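Onboarding guide, step 5: your first structure request.
Type a short instruction followed by the sequence, for example:

Predict the 3D structure of this protein.
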Amino acid sequence: MAAPSSLRRWRTAAVLAACALFALLLAFVRAGRTPAPAPASNTTLPATSETAEPCGIPQLDSVRAIPEAEGPPVLLWAAGDVRLYLDGKAAFSPPEQPRHFAVGEHTLRIEAEGHDPYELRVRFEPWTPALLHAELDPEGGLTLARLEAPCVSCPPPQQPYTAIPRRSPPTAGSPLTLAAASLRANAWPEALDLLAQVPDAKRTSRLFRRLESVVYADSHSSAAVHRALSDIDDRDLRALLSVHRALVDAERTRRHAIQLARWNRTTERFSALMEGFGEKLPQAMARASERLAALSPVFEQAHAAKEALDAEEALQAAEAELLTLTHQLRATRPRDCVFQAEVVRTVTR
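The system replies with structure tokens like these:
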């Protein structure tokens, strides 16, 4: 109840603020001092020598509050003597206290004595817990099971795979060993072809399950990854999968709370801009206030219904309005360094 009440108070305050700004604009007109038209609110002024550069304060490209919050928890587990490195640093993230990592691409490196290292680049998505499990198999060598950590240094999939087809084995040698080597070379389509040659008698083996899970991961079939790894009789791996499921629920709850915190911070920053600089751009301020007042019930309803995507859309629209207003304000006095610094400080604190 507290959250919707807070949002309703903001919506009322925003409407009143818009009315006050329109009254201020009307006063300018009646006095014969109509302010210059503000730039269109959907126009982002570029960072040039006429804007922020004379003061050494670059233009902001985002006013998103708590930007680091989207980084997901990642379970990093290396079995036995295997060593796992993330972005060049030895990495371990236990299930009891998983670490959060930045959204985006990361370099993974797996090493074991007597074996060539295995390296690839993966991507962590916002609010999406990931699981990375490295081990040394006596037949396949170094393997890395991945859940919600797609490879970006591998060929992109043309379609999702949820099962490995069956074909007659024309290849000499062990298809499992060759498939593991293909995956270490970031060639999952080649590994898929090799795994299709594995006879039924070996399709329930630990190595086959791990290798097929990688093919599913790289063709964006997370449910199939989870199914394949769950079929492996490994207490530690099953415990990690259980923790991963719990983290998915925890991230959903955390995202819900962070969205509200971001909305509140965005409206607080707008109010601070309006209070400190309202007379500089009354037209733009009034329009932004009216826009945020319209977005408020949209966000409120989506947030109350726990519709994360709809709430995010309203939040991003409000952030874009605030960013545009910030650019417009800074463009009014591009060479006033004290003014530039104060605007930036107001919109980022």
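Each response can be followed by summary notes, for example: The first strand starts at residue 73 and ends at 78.
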